[in-house]
UniProtKB/TrEMBL annotation:
It comes from Nitrosococcus halophilus (strain Nc4). One of its GO terms (biological process) is intracellular iron ion homeostasis. It comes from the Bacteria. This is Ferritin. The keyword Transcription does not apply. One of its GO terms (molecular function) is ferroxidase activity. Fe cation binds at E48, E81, H84, E125, Q158. PANTHER family: BACTERIAL NON-HEME FERRITIN, FERRITIN. Iron-storage protein. Keywords: Cytoplasm, Iron, Iron storage, Metal-binding, Oxidoreductase, Signal.
């Protein structure tokens, strides 16, 4: 009887070991990123870092014009874009991918007016929105539900980015060349907390 129980225990041990090994291998295969998805996520890391660089350039422009509220708003925007890049960075690593950083294009540093700066910021956010939407489509094409789910944060974030930058463009357009109006908007932008 003991011999039979011992053999039965060994069989269970071998069987559970085999099943655990198969499940671990399957989970590992599910966890890895598709090569095209990894490449495109790496491109998005670069795009997010470029965004941070662009917003820092815009902050520098506003500093040079003594519009410290607008500079503050742009600095916070740059920090947010860096955080986005790091979310993508961590996600690629979590999915057993390889992050490959590439050079970041130099942004413009000259604008005709504060309105022109925010028009460029709005246009840039439209471009980033398109990039995020393309990532969602690719995740669906390669049947990567985890990446599709991960990207939903950025889909929602882009709605907020477009709304806030468009509102500032609209307000600056309304005031025209009014210096008091510009200073009022600048003061309001300086109150941004995150």
């Amino acid at each position: 009887m003991r011999k039979l129980l011992f053999i039965w225990a060994i069989c269970l041990l071998v069987l559970s070991s085999f099943l655990f090994s198969a499940q671990a291998q399957e989970a590992s295969q599910v966890g890895k990123l598709n090569d095209k998805m990894q490449e495109t996520l790496n491109e998005q890391i670069n795009a997010e870092l470029y965004s941070a660089y662009l917003y820092l350039s815009m902050a520098a422009y506003f500093e040079s014009k003594s519009l410290v509220g607008s500079a503050h708003w742009m600095r916070l925007q740059a920090e947010e874009e860096t955080e986005h890049a790091m979310k993508f960075f961590d996600y690629v690593n979590d999915r057993e991918g390889r992050v490959i950083l590439k050079s970041i294009k130099a942004p413009s540093g000259n604008w005709e007016s504060p309105l022109a700066v925010f028009q460029d910021a709005y246009a840039h956010e439209q471009k980033v929105t398109d990039l995020i939407n393309q990532l969602v489509k690719l995740a669906d094409q390669v049947e990567d539900a985890a990446t599709h789910n991960f990207l939903q944060f950025f889909v929602e974030e882009q709605v907020e980015e477009l709304v806030s930058s468009k509102l500032i463009v609209d307000q600056l357009s309304l005031i025209g060349d009014s210096k008091p109006g510009l200073l009022m908007i600048d003061r309001q932008l300086g109150q941004r907390e995150e």
